[in-house]
Design brief:
This protein has 166 residues and is of the alpha+beta class. Strands 1-7-4-5 form a 4-stranded antiparallel sheet, covered by helices on one side. Strands 3-2-6 form a 3-stranded mixed sheet, with no helix packed on it.
Length: 166
């Protein structure tokens, strides 16, 4: 399903600020440690066809909203079939991130080898990966999340109104 590229060491303090996200091995800010200028001898990955995977020190797959560089302890997992929608990329990152439990010991004792990872994916009647299901499933989750957020905001406004009137 993928080509995998491994990031090389980047000393963040020696990079120039710019517009390209630099993905590092962290959970904060969707893995983005800094926005930098293009590094001439490094690849900028297409966000529509690549998932970033922090694989040493932390284990976290992310999808980005724009093209990005990868840094130390990060892999770029690029779909062999090319670009995928945001929802499909989100499905894949979720499937990959469900494997974090396998990395409990790995987090404190990082090595260059990863365990043999297998992710579960939906398939259609032809036994092919069902990208349409992924699209629909993630879309439904987004809609449910927005509905819950709207309800939460309504409750917060009502609580504020009651507090102000008392």
């Amino acid at each position: 399903l993928f080509n995998i590229a491994t990031g090389r060491d980047i000393i963040i303090g020696r990079t120039n600020s710019g517009n390209i996200p630099l993905i590092s091995h962290q959970h904060d800010n969707n893995g983005i440690s800094k926005r930098i200028d293009k590094i001439n001898d490094r690849r900028v990955f297409n966000h529509k066809s690549t998932i970033a995977l922090a694989d040493r020190g932390v284990f976290l797959a992310t999808t980005q909203a724009e093209n990005f560089h990868i840094g130390t302890r990060v892999k770029a997992v690029t779909f062999l079939e090319g670009e995928k929608s945001e929802n499909v990329r989100l499905y894949f990152t979720t499937a990959i991130n469900k494997l974090q439990i396998l990395f409990t010991e790995y987090l404190t004792n990082a090595t260059d080898s990863l365990p043999d990872l297998h992710i579960s994916l939906p398939v259609n009647d032809n036994n092919e990966i069902d990208y349409a299901f992924m699209e629909t499933y993630i879309s439904a989750i987004k809609k449910q999340t927005i509905a819950r957020l709207i309800e939460f905001i309504k409750c917060e406004k009502e609580a504020y109104r009651i507090a102000i009137n008392n």
